[in-house]
Amino acid sequence: MDDAAAPERTTVVTLAQMAGVAPSTVSRALKGDPRISDKTRRRIAALATEHGYMANAMARTLSSGRSGLVGLVLGTIDNPFYAELMQEAVSQCAPRGIRLMLLHAGGGPIEDRTAEALLQYKVDGCLISSAELSSRAAQICAGHGVPVVMVNRVPRLHASAVTCDNRSGAEQLAALLLAAGHVKFAIVKGGDESSNSVERERAFTEYVSANGGEVVLRVGGGSSYDGGFAAGRMFAEMPVRRRPDAIFAVADIMAMGVVDALRIAEVAVPRDISVVGFDGIAPAARPIYGITTVAQPLRAMVGRGLDLLTARIGTPNLPDEMVALRGDLILRCTARVAGQSV
Amino acid sequence: MDDAAAPERTTVVTLAQMAGVAPSTVSRALKGDPRISDKTRRRIAALATEHGYMANAMARTLSSGRSGLVGLVLGTIDNPFYAELMQEAVSQCAPRGIRLMLLHAGGGPIEDRTAEALLQYKVDGCLISSAELSSRAAQICAGHGVPVVMVNRVPRLHASAVTCDNRSGAEQLAALLLAAGHVKFAIVKGGDESSNSVERERAFTEYVSANGGEVVLRVGGGSSYDGGFAAGRMFAEMPVRRRPDAIFAVADIMAMGVVDALRIAEVAVPRDISVVGFDGIAPAARPIYGITTVAQPLRAMVGRGLDLLTARIGTPNLPDEMVALRGDLILRCTARVAGQSV
DNA sequence: TTGAAAGCGTTACCAG
DNA sequence: CTGGTAACGCTTTCAA
Q1: A64 touches strand D (CB under 7 A)
Q2: Domains located in chain A, CATH noted
Q3: What is the pLDDT of residues B180-239, one digit of tens each?
Q4: Under an 8 A CB cutoff, do A102 and B90 touch?
Q5: For B140, nearest residue in chain A (alpha carbons)
Q6: Which phi-psi region, left, alpha or beta, contains residue A108 (left: φ > 0; alpha: ψ -120 to 50)?
Q7: Which residues on B lie below 8 Å from A288 (Cβ)?
Q8: Distance between CA B100 and CA B104 in Å, rounded?
Q9: Which residues in chain B are closer than 8 Å to A78, comparing Cβ atoms?
Q10: Distance (Å) from the alpha carbon of B175 to chain A's nearest alpha carbon
């Protein structure tokens, strides 16, 4: 009835007709191919905007093999770090003209059917930032030449990665605590599969041992608030003599749990125990927490990750590249500081 | 050199050749078209799995007009509610075979270039859960027949929506507080553009007024922790006589801020003031907070939202539909309860 | 500097 | 029940 005037979506072909040129010319003009005369280019561009032309990404992909899609894999979202990372990724992808396909978010491995979306939608590359990457997904990427970049995680298989410099960060924290006179340390670990946790833990331990301190205790915190809370309660219940001086929680979210547990048990932070974290998530900065920490340079990390990815999309078979970015020590109030009384 | 044996990706055509049938038959067999004989179907299916056939989504979209893509628009991610919603959406989309394109996350409106992705990638529908939907994006969807479903937000333009029953929730909270003997109430609002905030605020006010209480104060909290914190500090600084008895923060994230500010000012919750929230986000349940609240039935909301969306994708021009799901009152410890001493 | 035509992999329509 | 074939909209040689 009322669709008599089917508006006939504008395509390269319709544009070509209007401009009196070939479709190929339109295609070239629109993407700025240098061998199209300025005059025709302008004419075509004008027509295009006038008619609200929008390239059909599907057709383009089918023909060119490039989709402009990047797969995003996120870790468990209870940790605000991943939410912040996601937001950063979204905002940095827009100006680069890359679209994100959200493949996974949360704990657990990637489902097979999800991994297949990689292939079906001809994803150009993959940005991964979860602890658990199913090996199937990794295989798929590797097997089909889909470049993978990991952010905040060292790669197990064929992939590039950008991480925070865990060693330097952990050392800065250790140095801070040591300078404040602490000697008996505890570490609240993430998971054993978490490369970050392992690296931070080791660097911290080594630095402390080499400088007159000792890590007397290490407890698992599962990279979650609850894990940190449980650990904190355990510390609070220890006889004071055996209790550590200072606690390094390898993630802020766990440090928050530790601090809360201590607070509830009326163990004063930092008077009785100093607590430091790692990551620099927003809630840890709230006045109620004021977690002393090392902040990951999230913006730069995502930016660098996207650089690596686009480079590899443009030029296949580039060698894997690992980049570590230094984090910033942020002094707040859960750790004693040398020469400062509480 | 070593790509001599170009593996020739398996497609419907190659499969057809192997099976000795037409491509159209393969296509039909693979999608379970009933008019293909069981025998051929099985044969083709076997071939397909054997050769690891993966349909090319781009080609399919080009030909069928349906992409299987749903655009996801998320509000500011500082509120864990959106992170939880995202996770829920991701996990519910997978089994339904729908893929998510992450269009936007964070504050601010959707960029135009992002909105255009909607068209370029032939997104089948849009799931929106942010306060700010750029009208441009909405126009684009409406103008191109892309169904839109809003979750946790009432639609301004042409769109369906699923929300929590704000009225019932607010009334449950009001009733609880009234029963505990509170009479002087304050409300910490979200933004004025937030439909949820407005609805909750109004329902709460009406119920309270109708039952012998009074809302003596309403202050903006910007739907953020910081906003709640500022509001809480303000309450703490008020002369006790003028201070409200009980505070309704229209979002848990603000309630957390309120509670922290009061705690820091050594105003006891709930002894001196009761505080209630709304949403049911995970951090508000931590022992350190224990926010009394109404939890939104997130899983059901997302499920229902996806139902509405797929229905509208399958059958265009269905009328807009608004569904409200009742939330659950969760008694924790920031609100006094009738007949209970503190 | 531009044009013509051959795909890209699927689906859908029309026959048979 | 199945086959043929024309789209879908764009890119990309190969020619001119």
Answers
A1: yes
A2: 12-55 (no CATH), 65-164+298-326 (3.40.50.2300), 166-296 (3.40.50.2300)
A3: 999 999 999 998 888 899 999 999 999 999 999 999 999 999 999 999 999 999 999 999
A4: yes
A5: A52
A6: left
A7: 260, 263-264
A8: 11
A9: 282
A10: 30
pLDDT digits 0-9 by tens, B70-95? 999 998 888 999 999 999 999 999 99
- The verdict on whether omega for the bond into residue A319 sits within 30 degrees of 0, i.e. cis, is no
Q: What is the DSSP letter of B322?
A: E
Nucleic acid strand D: bases within 7 A of protein CB? 1-13
Tokens standing for residue B175? 């009733």
Other Cβ atoms less than 10 A from the Cβ of A180: the count is 17
Asked if A30 is an interface residue toward chain B (Cβ–Cβ < 8 A), one would say: no
Cα separation, B249 vs B197, in Å, equals: 9
Q: Which nucleotides of C are covered by protein (CB under 7 A)?
A: 1-13
CA distance B324 to A172: 51
Interatomic distance A23 CA / D14 C1' (Å): 16
Give yes or no for a contact between B274 and B248, defined as CB atoms under 8 angstroms apart.
no
Q: How far: A128 CA to C4 C1' (Å)?
A: 44
Cβ pair B97:A113 closer than 8 A: yes
Quick check: A135 CB within 7 A of strand D?
no
The model carries a pTM of 0.93
Partners of A72 in the beta sheet? A102, A127
From the list B82, B102, B120, which residue is nearest A90 (CB)? B102
Q: Helix or strand or coil: residue A128? A: strand
Give the per-residue SS3 of chain A. CCCCCCCCCCCHHHHHHHHCCCHHHHHHHHCCCCCCCHHHHHHHHHHHHHCCCCCCHHHHHHHHCCCCEEEEEECCCCCHHHHHHHHHHHHHHHHHCCEEEEEEECCCCCCHHHHHHHHHCCCCEEEEECCCCCHHHHHHHHHCCCCEEEECCCCCCCCEEEEECHHHHHHHHHHHHHHCCCCEEEEEECCCCCHHHHHHHHHHHHHHHHCCCEEEEEEECCCCHHHHHHHHHHHHHCCCCCCCCEEEECCHHHHHHHHHHHHHCCCCCCCCCEEECCECCHHHHCCCCCCEEEECCHHHHHHHHHHHHHHHHHCCCCCCCEEEECCEEECCCCCCCCCCCC
B60, closest nucleotide (Cα–C1')? C10
Task: Among all protein residues, pick the one whose CA is nearest to the C1' atom of D11.
Answer: A63
Query: CB distance from B101 to chain A under 8 Å?
Result: yes
A150: which strand partners?
A: A128, A161
Residue B311 CA to D8 C1' — how many Å? 25
Q: How many residues does chain B have?
A: 342
Please report the number of interchain residue pairs, chain A to chain B, with beta-carbon separation below 8 angstroms: 119
Determine the distance between A41 (CA) and D16 (C1') in angstroms.
20
Q: pLDDT, tens digit, for every residue of B124-183? A: 999 998 766 666 777 788 888 899 999 998 877 788 999 999 999 999 999 999 999 999
The amino acid that residue A39 corresponds to is K
